[in-house]
Amino acid sequence: MxxxxxITLSCLLFACVQTTKNESSHSSxxxxxxxxxxxxxxxxxLVEVTNPYPQSSVALRYIVVQRGAEVPVHDNNTEVIxxxxxxxxxxxxxxxxxxDQLGAEEVLIGFPTTDLISSEKxxxxxxxxxxxxxxxxxxxxxxxxxxxxxxLVMGYSISGDMVKLSRVxxxxxxxxxxxxYLEDHPLGRAEWIKFMAVFLDKEKEADSIFNRIxxxxxxxxxxxxxxxxxxxxxxxxxxxDAWFLPGGQNYAAKMLAxxxxxxxxxxxxxxxxxxxxxxxxxxxxVDAEYWIGVGSFNSLDEMKTAEQRYELFAAFKHANVYTxxxxxxxxxxxxxxxxGYARPDLVLKDLIxxxxxxxxxxxxxxxxxxxx
Length: 372
Known about the structure:
Number of helices: 14
Mean pLDDT: 91
CATH superfamily of the largest domain: Nitrogenase molybdenum iron protein domain
Number of domains: 2
CATH architecture of the largest domain: 3-Layer(aba) Sandwich
Radius of gyration: 22 Å
CATH class of the largest domain: Alpha Beta
Number of strands: 18
Largest sheet: 5 strands, mixed
């Protein structure tokens, strides 16, 4: 792994940062996100990604300085980012959703497989050639990427394998790891808009956007807090021989709970996704009232064609099966994967509307739709 990406807690770095902190530092307030910290220092901002990938043992650190300002003393393991970033390459559609919300779509100049982007603001820029298609994520065209002269590449790592991103760093291009997907609270994921904002000089806008999302989320949650009955639900589908569904502490399970459902695996202690066999899911979930989150299926017939046994579930029989893929861009990109993590308030309202439509009489489902 490239030393520009793997940040060690060296004595030299600790000493220079600690001295400055004693003089003038203060940390930005985060309410839900656990995976990053933002500290204002004298003349620069320190951004730390404390959990960059699952089971990581190191934190990644970035120094953000204003354009034209003096770069503070730092060790070779610390990446320096000049803000505001004006030319960025993103590698996940969830990053694109953050740019979209911040009104910073013009900074995006490259993306792997641009067909996955559904943003109404960015699609025209792709069509005009202002956003380059860099190929498949794992095999990005590094020559093309280099020619774009990005000031920042925002990446992610699921396994801790940084080889591809290290090659980007070797080209002299700053790389920042975004680990929002590891947050286990829906509002924790949304709060990563503050992370993106630091590199764009849009912190005030991010605070305002997040506060509005939080307010809407909590107001929706309060609608079901006094419900005496909770509809039962299952989630997920089979991939091969394994049924993947959220663990009881997963962000999706927490959202179902906040929406007033009894998720049948809510007592599970995992924050990851469970991998179960069909028989285990059937034994517990055959009588569940709802089935929410069935991948990209577009109809009940399509589900049954893929797996005949799906029709054994009560939720399937009563057509109470819902997909989150109601909105797709003109080239097939899922708006849920682009914007859903950044707008948990809309997802929560969808879930409430499904089981308790009378609580949100004027609200129409946004991401979700009932399969027929």
